[in-house]
Design a protein that fits this description.
The complex is a heterodimer of chains A (112) and B (117). Chain A has 112 residues and is mainly beta. Chain A has strands at 3-5, 10-14, 19-21, 24-26, 33-38, 45-49, 60-61, 72-74, 83-92, 98-102, 106-111. In chain A, a hairpin with a 6-residue loop joins strand 5 and strand 6. The N and C termini of chain A lie far apart (41 Å). Chain B is mostly beta strands and 117 residues long. Helix content of chain B is 0%, strand content 49%. Chain B is built from no helices and eleven strands. In chain B, strands 2, 4, 5, 6, 9, 10 and 11 form a seven-stranded mixed β-sheet that branches. A four-stranded antiparallel β-sheet of chain B has the order 1-3-8-7, with no helix packed on it. Classes of the chains: A mainly beta (112), B mainly beta (117). Chains A and B meet through strand 6, strand 9 and strand 10 of A and strand 4 and strand 5 of B.
């Protein structure tokens, strides 16, 4: 089965500390992975996609095929980073389309 | 304003009473999808549609129906709701839904909180 695992339900760090949200995946082909974020009372929105190799709001994520991981990192956490973070995997289907499989999410709390 | 809208935003109903949650997008997106969000389980895909009249099951389709008669609308139908369908539902859309094209960001609606008594 092709799936995404986020082992931490809750991650609490102090402001200014480094943060790493873990994501592991299980997929037989070449994966396409993403991080979505949901701030309090806001809609879910795309944060990062691995093919872009971009840094958004100081966050980066590197695809490690050997470890089947796509961990989200930020060197210095800010209070406004507190949110729910979801790792997602694009899974092609038999109808030439795709489905998006989300992990269970990690709640990040950055305290002053 | 480009957006995904859902109605109603909140709904309390009783077991067995058919209901429909509407979803509409004004971005001319081909791909639309429904998810449910439950504590400890995250987001799970219910159904998705790659274009008009093309729909497919996600991970948790049981108890739900969808239709895609026009590009902008993708209603979620619960023919006979049950308490285990109490959840927060999100609709999402993206530009294209084909596996061969680069992934297009999914835009999410504000959510519909459904309670089935």
């Amino acid at each position: 089965a092709q799936r995404v695992t986020q082992p931490e339900k809750l991650l609490s760090v102090f402001k200014g500390a480094p943060v790493e949200l873990k994501c592991n995946y299980s997929y037989s082909g070449s994966p396409e992975l993403f991080w979505y974020v949901q701030y309090s009372r806001q809609r879910l929105q795309l944060l990062l996609r691995h093919i872009s190799r971009e840094s958004i709001k100081g966050f980066t994520a590197d695809l490690n095929k050997g470890e089947t991981s796509f961990h989200l990192k930020k060197p210095f956490a800010q209070e406004e980073d507190s949110a729910m973070y979801y790792c997602a995997l694009k899974i092609p289907n038999s109808n030439s389309g795709y489905a998006l499989n989300f992990g269970k999410g990690t709640s990040l709390l950055v305290t002053p | 304003e480009a957006q995904v809208t859902q109605n109603p935003r909140y709904l309390i109903t009783v077991t067995g009473k058919k209901l429909t949650v509407t979803c509409s997008q004004n971005m001319n997106h081909e791909y639309m999808s429904w998810y449910r969000q439950d504590p400890g389980l995250g987001l799970r895909q219910i159904y998705y549609s790659m274009n008009v009249e093309v729909t497919d099951k996600g991970d948790v389709p049981e108890g739900y129906k969808v239709s895609r008669k026009e590009k902008r609308n993708f209603p979620l139908i619960l023919e006979s709701p049950s308490p285990n369908q109490t959840s927060l539902y999100f609709c999402a859309s993206s530009l294209q839904g084909t596996r061969t094209k680069s992934y297009n960001e999914q835009f999410f609606g504000p959510g519909t909180r459904l309670t089935v008594l």
